[in-house]
């Protein structure tokens, strides 16, 4: 299967590398076809990896991972092209973080809306599945790095079959079925995105980015 990864940051490179390792053909998208980080990522990952513009990648992928800067995601998806995204699953790992006033960042959208919903509203033809945004990217693709993988990942979206397909990829990453919590429709992005103000405050207390949520009853 061909997968697009929109975004050349740490998250896009980490998810893209893991997907190549699992045997997927992966194209990384950027504003520019010759992006330096994408070129280096391709050199590291070989023939199954390629890169191009956001539009090239979106046209290539059967499933799209959205690993773009939250403040610019909507304009990036316009660059990717509606016709290239239509009908496809968009795995949205973004957070609407605004660092313009320094640390800790604020959220550009919250309470009665979320970036996941803004994407779904602006692009009704995309099957948006919000997931993985509540943890650092090394854990997204390898939950067994800590606590024997016994911690939780949230998922939400309006399309049940899209969530099923995304769950299969999460399981390939190492997530156990019982640890993938389907919160329901895309409005539940409000909850997972609003965890970020706590996450950024936990980070200096924990002294690491590699920590996670484990739900206990
Ligand atoms: N870091 C983590 O572990 C982590 C964990 C959970 C969620 N997230 C979320 O994952 C997403 C990706 O994070 P990241 O740190 O890997 O990358 P990032 O720096 O947030 O985003 C990188 C991508 O955004 C594009 N971009 C940056 N500024 C832009 C602008 N002004 N206009 C248009 N495009 C712009 C870049 O395009 P070019 O390729 O053209 O430069 C690049 O592809 C974010 O939404 C973040 O909140 C991150």
Features:
217 residues, alpha/beta, two-stranded antiparallel sheet, 39% helix, binds NADP nicotinamide-adenine-dinucleotide phosphate
Number of helices: 10
Distance between the termini: 38 Å
**Structural class determined from secondary elements:** alpha/beta
Seen as an oligomer or otherwise, the chain set is single chain
Helix content: 25-40%
Low-pLDDT segments, ≥5 res:
none
Known CATH architecture: 3-Layer(aba) Sandwich
CATH domain fold name: Rossmann fold
**Physical arrangement of strands within the biggest beta sheet:** 3-2-1-4-5-8-9-10
What overall geometry do the principal axes of the alpha carbons give? Answer: globular
Can you give the mean pLDDT? 98
Q: Please, what is the CATH homologous superfamily?
A: NAD(P)-binding Rossmann-like Domain
Secondary structure tally: strands: 10
Ligand identities? NADP nicotinamide-adenine-dinucleotide phosphate
H and E order = EHEHEHEHHEEEHEHEHEHH
Number of domains: 1
């Amino acid at each position: 299967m061909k997968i697009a990864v929109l975004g050349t940051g740490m998250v896009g490179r980490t998810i893209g590398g893991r997907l190549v390792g699992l045997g997927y053909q992966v194209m990384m998208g950027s504003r520019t076809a010759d992006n330096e980080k994408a070129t280096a990522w391709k050199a590291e990952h070989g023939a199954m990896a390629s890169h191009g513009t956001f539009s090239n990648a979106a046209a290539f992928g059967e499933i799209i991972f959205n690993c773009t800067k939250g403040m610019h995601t909507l304009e990036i998806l316009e660059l990717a092209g509606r016709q290239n995204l239509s009908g496809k699953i968009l795995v949205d790992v973004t957070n609407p973080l605004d660092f313009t006033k320094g640390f800790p960042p604020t959220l550009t959208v919250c309470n009665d809306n979320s970036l996941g919903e803004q994407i779904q509203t602006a692009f009704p033809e995309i099957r948006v599945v919000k997931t993985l945004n509540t943890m650092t990217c090394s854990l997204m693709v390898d939950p067994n790095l800590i606590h024997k993988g016994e911690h939780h990942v949230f998922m939400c979206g309006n399309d049940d079959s899209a969530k099923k397909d995304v769950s299969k990829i999460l399981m390939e990453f190492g997530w156990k079925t019982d640890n993938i919590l389907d919160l329901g429709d895309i409005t539940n992005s409000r909850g997972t995105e609003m965890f970020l103000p706590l996450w950024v405050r936990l980070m200096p207390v924990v002294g690491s980015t590699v920590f996670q949520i484990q739900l206990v009853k």
